[in-house]
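#onboarding

Welcome to the new folks! Below is a worked example of what a typical request in this channel looks like: someone posts a single protein sequence, and someone else replies with the predicted structure as tokens. Don't worry about understanding the tokens yet, we'll cover that in week two.

Example request:
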Amino acid sequence: MSLRYKIGVLKFHIQHYVTMHIAKWAVRFAKIQPLPNTITGKRVLVISPHPDDEVFGCGGLILRCIKAGNQPHVVILTDGANSLGEWRKDKERIVAERVKLTDCATQALGLKAENLHRFFLKDGILTEEIANISKQELLMKKLKSMEPDYIFVPSPLGDSPDHLAANKFGTMLHDAMVSDGKCPELWNYCVWAWYCHPLQLVKRLSNLHLFKLSKEEHETKLRAVNVYVLPEATTGQYWSGKLPSLFVAIHRWNRELYYKA
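Example response:
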């Protein structure tokens, strides 16, 4: 590995660090409207492309809903089999371990087992999976039956193809429910948007809604996040993959960002 390459990588990480902290401080000090309190008393559906996005992006909101006596529905679309690389041959074990982690993380938040729904679609090709008419119809039927008042999907600023596919499917679900005479609200939550496009979030400050966790809520969310990111958590390995330290740090913050689609 050449010195020039190492310098280039170091420069990239420094720029990334600076832009993420600019975004974080902008969010901290800007007068961002809070997420409406009415949401926690309504039927909430969180659509997560992978087993961990639900905690990173919406852990605080899920917890607040549960505290209000209103269990949300959390849907995990893919099996998460590619978290350690597409080349791995032990994918069945990876899926099994990630199931355990999600059970542990959502239990830490207080989510009931019957409100956690897994569809085990193929990780990495969610766009193709959702394009399958029979699978799409099955998903639509199941999620419509939950009659959500609010649908939360990952922000399209996350770049990940699976996140974009989950966002698209959430939009399809919303539009289908509107066609049926329902009126759910569609919201974006931020997972990889923080890491991939922090300055794009700053540009959206006027449209962002801030959710601030109480001290108790923050401590509970940290326990759920740690289930996914600490190797000593239940399995002794990073079954969710080696996540960038900056990414993990921002999701250990006591704030979450949302914006209306």
